[in-house]
Amino acid sequence: MDTILIRNVRLIGNDEPSLGCVLIRHGKLVSVQSGDDLSVFAADCEIDGNGHLLIPGMIDVHIHGADGFDMMDGTIESIEAVSKACVRTGCTSFLATSVSSSLEDLLKMIANVKELSGKEPGARILGLHIEGPYLNVKRKGMQNECYLRHPDLEEMKKLINKSGSLLRMVTLAPELPGGLEMIRFLRDKGIIAAIAHSDATYEEAKQAFANGATHVTHCFNGMRPIHHRDPGLVLAAFEESSVSVQAIVDDVHLHPAIVRLLYREKGPEKMVLITDALQAMGLGDGTYLFGGHEVRVIDGVAKLGDGTLASSTVTMNEALEKTIQTGIPLRDAVRMATLTPANVLGLEHKGRIEPGADADLVLMNDRFEVLWTMVNGKIIYRRA
Asked: What is the domain partition of the chain in residue ranges?
């Protein structure tokens, strides 16, 4: 089936979603039509969307695991499992994300991601997001203190040599010794320098942005809080129009008012929805081993024994729904899960429904349940 017509779907335009149809050829979108006039189309196969919402495939730039698998566990099977789990949630591509660990374990994860890349059974791997180990122990969150260390350029060079072009993002604390040098090094390599698990002051954060940091990982979480005499990293990020921020919208990590604040300050162009999910995503409550810690998930909330939040269990389609429930318009919420992360990663053919884009598409009902997910023009998940 070289040419596929998807008809009778609601497409998001400048106003409320309206009926339209799209034509796909060889895994690419070649035409997008408003209304349901099919006279301009000829296709090998037609798919009736039954009036449901069609959006671009969502992109998760921060996910650790799913379905009982942690991508740091040293197996290719774990990364395959996350790829399969993602498409059930409408996520068609992702950054495989690490936690703070030994260099040996990081290199093993990188090797496994590299081996699977291009052969994924579900969502496609866009690259690697190395979260840690160059993080501040004062804001470590669930990161294992045993592995935290200062930025090390020689170590980073080893990671880059192993990963090649797959390394897309590194999260670090810029106030640590060597932090600014690391940011400049990453900038010069075309790798996104992101900030989190950081006790950076406002001034230190401003310096980090001036040296090339462009992204804030899980904004508000794992960083110095806002104070009227000590505004910190978050306010510094708000003042930088080029800086994008991640948001975990799961009704736990951020109060709805904070979600709205992020939206007002950064807009849909610079706010990125993520899951930050651990292996409990898709399984639910229970006890898990994550980042060298025992994590208990109760009522969908993951915590360490001392009560520290430990990643999340939210899925991308749930994050989308919860974002809309805070009062953010559908069009902007979808953008934050699709086009904005694509733009952050510099991907011109992802996260959009327009001619020339990859045919990564998701059909959703009014409850934001995923009816089917298409990757590169092929439906690889269909809800039973």
From this structure: 3-55+352-382, 57-344
